[in-house]
Amino acid sequence: MTGLTRIGSNVLAGMPLDRAAHLRTDAAWLKARFDDPSTRYIAIWRQNAVVRLGPEPRPVIHYRETLDGLLDEHAEPTLLGVEVENGAAGAAHFVVDLSHVEAGALLARSPGGEMMDLRELVQIVPGPDSALIAYARGLTYWHRRHRFCGACGSPAAALEAGHQRRCTNEDCGAVHFPRTDTAVITLVHDGDECLLCRQSRWPPGMHSTLAGFLEPGESLEECVAREIEEESGVRVGDVRYHSSQPWPFPGTLMVGFMAQALSREIAVDETELEYAHWYKRRDLLGRRDSDEFRLPGRYSISRRLIEDWLAGRIPP
Ligand SMILES: [Zn+2]
């Protein structure tokens, strides 16, 4: 896991395309790319992507020809970006939402492919491909939940190649942008111990760092201090930024921190946590995953925070 040591290298970040935002309003270019036989399409079906299994699992890439007959008015093609080949713009990539077709109709166009959710996919598909699917899935999720204007309730139509929706009521005209919710996730440490918690809804034995959503009018550092104290009773200071991770389950950015504890006594909010404990570094280093104790998946920022702290890598 050498990639874990590089700041900014969290899994689900590192989407490989040029997002080409300046081309989202170029109607002629978009029309030409949409009809171009070399244009790549990623199909999302009810939040699943199609993956071709084998020694090297990869997402199935479609073309105009392989999706013939399925790209109707419900597909809502959204420009993901363009490949960059030797510094030059290569093939354009669109995501299409095919949730309205029979799963079999899509799989019939995807030989060897099977439907897979991102949580499963991210564990077997290479990082850049997982990041691309996370981006594609995040956009389709947003479109499906923003068909109507939140201000007046009229239908909202996609524009900017699917990166905005505008209310069709001319008296309103509100423009809506893809939404990302901000959450903080924090490894709290004190000497050679760190604070981990458990929620009863997590898989058996899983323990993790504390996390919570940012509220309006709050800085990230204030959010870290509030969430830790609310959930565990522990007060923290010296909050240091570590790294961030897109977490499209369904639409969050996880902002990772490490924070020095200012108090030790634990008093958990039982509506949030089953319990929280201080864990010694040497005990965590020697521990193997079991149904009594395991750390979060290796693709998660929480795992990276824990691994970095165990290795003594604390942000300066
Ligand atoms: Zn409106």
CATH architecture of the largest domain: Alpha-Beta Complex
Please work out how many helical segments DSSP would assign: 7
Give the amount of beta strand, in percent.
25-35%
Return the structural class: alpha+beta
Count of spatially separate domains: 2
CATH topology of the largest domain: Nucleoside Triphosphate Pyrophosphohydrolase
Describe this structure as you would to a colleague.
The chain is of the alpha+beta class and 316 residues long. It folds into two domains: 2-145, Nucleoside Triphosphate Pyrophosphohydrolase; 181-310, Alpha-Beta Complex (Nucleoside Triphosphate Pyrophosphohydrolase), CATH 3.90.79.10. The protein is 21% helix and 30% strand. It has seven helices and 15 strands. It has helices at residues 27-35, 103-108, 118-121, 127-144, 220-232, 281-285, 301-310; strands at residues 40-45, 48-52, 58-59, 78-85, 88-97, 113-117, 156-159, 164-167, 175-176, 181-190, 193-198, 210-213, 236-247, 252-261, 275-280. The strands form three sheets. Strands 1, 2, 3, 4, 5 and 6 form a six-stranded mixed β-sheet that branches. Strands 10, 11, 12, 13, 14 and 15 form a six-stranded mixed β-sheet that branches. The protein binds zinc ion (ZN).
